Amino acid sequence: MEIKYSEMLGKKYEELLKNSAFLSAIGGNVPEQVTKDSKNFHILSPSKNISFTFDNDSKTLKFASLSPDSNGLLTHGLTTLVNQEQAAELLGQPIDGKPAQKIPLLGMVGAWSTHIFEGNKLMLMYSVDTGCLEKIRFTL
Predict the structure, then answer these.
(1) Under the phi-then-psi rule, with left for phi > 0, alpha for psi from -120 to 50, and beta for the rest, what region is 27?
(2) Cα 34 to Cα 32: distance, rounded to the nearest angstrom
(3) Which of 14, 21, 41, 72 falls 20 to 30 Å from 86 in CA-CA distance?
(4) Spatial contact of 57 and 69, defined as CB atoms under 8 Å apart
(5) Separation between Cα atoms, residue 40 and residue 73, nearest integer Å
(6) DSSP secondary-structure letter at 64?
(7) Closest CA to 66 of 77, 54, 46, 51
(8) Residues above pLDDT 70, as percent of the chain
(9) What residues pair up with 50 in beta bridges, in sequence order?
(10) Dist. CA 3–CA 82, nearest whole Å
(11) CA–CA distance, 34 with 95 (Å, rounded to integer)
C-alpha cells in the first residue's frame, strides 16, 4: 500500500498521531528523531528515508521530503533513474523549476521542478552529477 503523503499535508501533528500511515512513516508511536528551528519542528525517520516539517505555531504539516530507498525507489513510480524529461512525461509539465546552477558559497546545485500532484505541489530535486531524481518533497 502506497502512503498518501499529500493527504497528510495541512493536518495537525496531534491528528496525524492517530493516522496509522503516519505512525508507520515515523517509525512507530515515537518519532525516531525530532529537531527544531525557530519556525518549524522536524520529524526525521532515517530508516524510512523521510522527514516531515511542521509549523511550530500551528503544528500543521508543511511538507514531507522523501529520499530513495536502497533500491533507488521513491514513490508513485519514481526512481533515481528518472530525469526531468521523464518526470514531465509521468507527471505532466512542471509549473515551476530551475536548471542546475552555480550558487555563491554553495557551488553547483541540482535542478528542480514543481508539479501539481493530487491537489498539492510535488517538488522534484535532481542530482547535479547525473541529472536524475534525488529527492521529492510534497508541499502545500
Answers:
(1) left
(2) 7
(3) 21
(4) no
(5) 28
(6) E
(7) 51
(8) 96
(9) 45, 66
(10) 20
(11) 32
Residue 43 main-chain phi, psi, to 5 deg: -115, 120
- Distance CA(62)–CA(129), nearest Å, equals 29
Helices (DSSP H) in 4-130: which residue ranges?
Answer: 5-8, 13-16, 20-26, 84-91
Check pLDDT > 60 for residue 92.
yes
Residues linked to residue 65 through DSSP beta bridges, in sequence order: 51, 137
| pTM metric for this prediction | 0.85
Q: pLDDT tens digits for 14-47?
A: 999 999 999 988 877 667 677 788 899 999 888 8
DSSP H helices, the chain, are: 5-8, 13-16, 20-26, 84-91
Question: Are 64 and 138 within 8 A, CB to CB?
Answer: yes
Q: Is the pLDDT of residue 1 over 60?
A: no
In this predicted model, what pLDDT tens digit does every residue of 47-71 receive, in sequence order?
A: 889 999 999 999 999 999 999 988 8
